[in-house]
Amino acid sequence: MPRTVAQKILQQHSDDTVGEAGQIVRCRVSMVLANDITAPLAIKSFRAMGAADVFDKDKVALVCDHFTPNKDIDSAEQVKVVREFAKEKGITHYYEGGNVGVEHALLPELGLVGPGDIVVGADSHTCTYGGLGAFATGMGSTDIAGAMALGETWFKVPPTIRVEITGTPEKHVGAKDYILNLIGKIGVAGALYKALEFGGGVVDGLSIEGRMTMANMAIEAGGKVGLFASDAKTLKYTKAAGRKGDETLSADSGAIYERVVDIDVTGMEPQIACPHLPDNVKPVSEVKDVEIHQAVIGSCTNGRIEDMREAAAILKGRKVSSSVRCIVLPATPKIWRQCMDEGLFAIFMDAGAVIGPPTCGPCLGGHMGILAGGERCIATTNRNFKGRMGSLQAEVFLANPAVAAASAVTGIITHPKDI
Amino acid sequence: MKYKGKAHVVGANIDTDAIIPARFLVTTDEAELGANCMEGQEEGWVKRVSPGDIMVAGPNFGCGSSREHAPIAIKGAGMPVVVAHSFARIFYRNGFNMGLILLEVGDDFAKFSDGDQIEADPEAGVVRNLTTGVEVTCQPVPPFMNEILNAGGLVGYVKNRLAQSA
């Protein structure tokens, strides 16, 4: 039977014969992840399960990135629970201090996830690793506790939607715009319970970072995974991250797709997801005269070095509007250092931006950039739910890093070509 | 077992930030989370709920974050059952794992109005609107998920598995 990328990866990790969509299969996992919000619950469930040890101390990652550096006593207590558990179980990959980064930027960088892997994480954006060709998906804490104890979990084989992305990209338009465009097309439940498999010439030409940006938001269409074939580019990336033995993997010709969605990027403008759902997407030219009070450049969607460079290219020699707080959060210590070494921080500081530590912070309304009632933010993050970044009366607009930077300069949502 | 209570109808695409905003995620306590249930939708929303009431929702209920705090908050608020057009995937797993009963009824969710008296019978796969007399059927629970439910949830299931392999 010709198979999709999702079916192939599931088969590689299962003793069951992986057949058609809907079948429930049990699979071995390559990596299990939780963060400072979700790990405490996972630890509670893990203990309630009567588990003595984690299935493999090298295959569990605990990344305290959401409320860290800790914003208050309660969040510090939560991290303490995670830290002590990591120590007790001898978990190799525990990150909290100077080594911590936004989990989905950190794990690929450290070579902890790669093509053909099955990764489950107690964080919905675990699907990011689909950019590397991994079957990676978010689950709740108790599911993660089960995976930590057993080294396996169950999946319903998802039907796959194939997304073909073709055409010639415009300047200042990239991965974030393609995925926003798709979500706008199919809706926030358009891929509910399904896999999204991305292909086409534009995808082949995308950097691995760009692919991760797209895979990251598969969940915003309800998707279980957002998958890319792993190619020579993927192997180059994972080899540089210190991994060995990774292989290429793509869908079989004749694989069965539930539907195919075609996106031609020729002539596409930067895309903006307007409040309060990621599928409320409009081209930037249709979002006129929207005044903003904050710009956030960072997160697991767009906090990698390419994103920092893109924002810096716009901010270079310019000033952030006096009515805007522009917050730049490089996603990992490595990216932070790269920004420093490449002189990007000087550009951000000269422009009047605030540079923060690697943290999820404002993306989920955690800390370091909370919105007051009536305030509007343009963000390179992945969600603009009502109240997500603070007040229920605040508004969040999602965009690519160049648009966020250009808007920070003008104080209104702006196409980078117009500054 | 049957569940009877007043319906609280919410809309489509109710996300986990609406169910329990991030600022409340500094605890894992069910009562504390329950006291802030739906605080991201409307301040003080939970005050309308009496123990045993039933949440009724449109499509894609529970979309967004993987936070298990969301089904815990609903249970903590006193609602043992959610009847929806459809559930977001992670929320669906979390609901079962946490022992929150989730009944998927498709377009029939519109047959329930705010304040209606509802009776949910998960074993029979039926939800009744006692106010209007309308009865709708829900999707059966997949057999494997029943295995988890029969073990008292995922905690019990893993416990059994670990005991077998010991």
From TrEMBL, chain A:
Entries under SUPFAM superfamilies matching the protein: Aconitase iron-sulfur domain (SSF53732)
Alphabetically ordered keywords of this record: 4Fe-4S, Amino-acid biosynthesis, Branched-chain amino acid biosynthesis, Iron, Iron-sulfur, Leucine biosynthesis, Lyase, Metal-binding
Record-level GO BP terms: L-leucine biosynthetic process
GO molecular function, one term: metal ion binding
Binding residues for [4Fe-4S] cluster: 300, 360, 363
Cofactor dependence: [4Fe-4S] cluster
Entry-linked Pfam families: Aconitase
Free-text function comment from the UniProt entry: Catalyzes the isomerization between 2-isopropylmalate and 3-isopropylmalate, via the formation of 2-isopropylmaleate.
Family indicated by similarity: Belongs to the aconitase/IPM isomerase family. LeuC type 2 subfamily.
HAMAP family: LeuC_type2 (MF_01027)
Subunit structure, as described in the record: Heterodimer of LeuC and LeuD.
NCBIfam families membership: hacA_fam, IPMI_arch, LEU2, PRK00402.1
Name of this protein: 3-isopropylmalate dehydratase large subunit
Organism, as annotated: Desulfovibrio ferrophilus
Gene: leuC
Automatic annotation (TrEMBL), chain B:
Keyword Lyase: yes
Pfam family name, one: Aconitase_C
Top-level enzyme category: lyase
Record keywords: Amino-acid biosynthesis, Branched-chain amino acid biosynthesis, Leucine biosynthesis, Lyase
The name this protein goes by in its record: 3-isopropylmalate dehydratase small subunit
Similarity comment text for this entry: Belongs to the LeuD family. LeuD type 2 subfamily.
Function: Catalyzes the isomerization between 2-isopropylmalate and 3-isopropylmalate, via the formation of 2-isopropylmaleate.
Organism: Desulfovibrio ferrophilus
Keyword Magnesium: no
Pathway(s) served: Amino-acid biosynthesis; L-leucine biosynthesis; L-leucine from 3-methyl-2-oxobutanoate: step 2/4
Domain Aconitase A/isopropylmalate dehydratase small subunit swivel span(s) in chain numbering: 50-105
Gene assigned in the entry: leuD
EC number: 4.2.1.33
Catalytic activity from the UniProt record: (2R,3S)-3-isopropylmalate = (2S)-2-isopropylmalate
